[in-house]
Amino acid sequence: MNRxxxxxxxxxxxxxxxxxxxxxxxxxVGLSAAHPVTGSTLTMNITVTGWxxxxxxLLSVLGAVLLLVSAVMAVVDIAGARRA
Length: 84
Known about the structure:
- The chain is α+β, with helices and mostly antiparallel strands.
- It has one domain.
- 64% of the residues lie in helices and 17% in strands.
- The chain has a two-stranded antiparallel sheet.
- A hairpin with an 8-residue loop joins strand 1 and strand 2 (41-47).
- Helix 1 packs antiparallel against helix 2.
């Protein structure tokens, strides 16, 4: 499998995993901004149950691994091209 197809697959797996997780979560998200920026907060209370919790995480991890492998392949290709 060449690098371009691997990157497309990685992006698709990441996107599907994140969408699957975020479309089935229950909870709340809060953001408050304050003048000294150190007082600003982002609060997330999220629960995902069932298949989206399992499948979404697995798809996201698979996408991240594919993205890492394709990045290493790109670096190896660049290093090999410079030697030649």
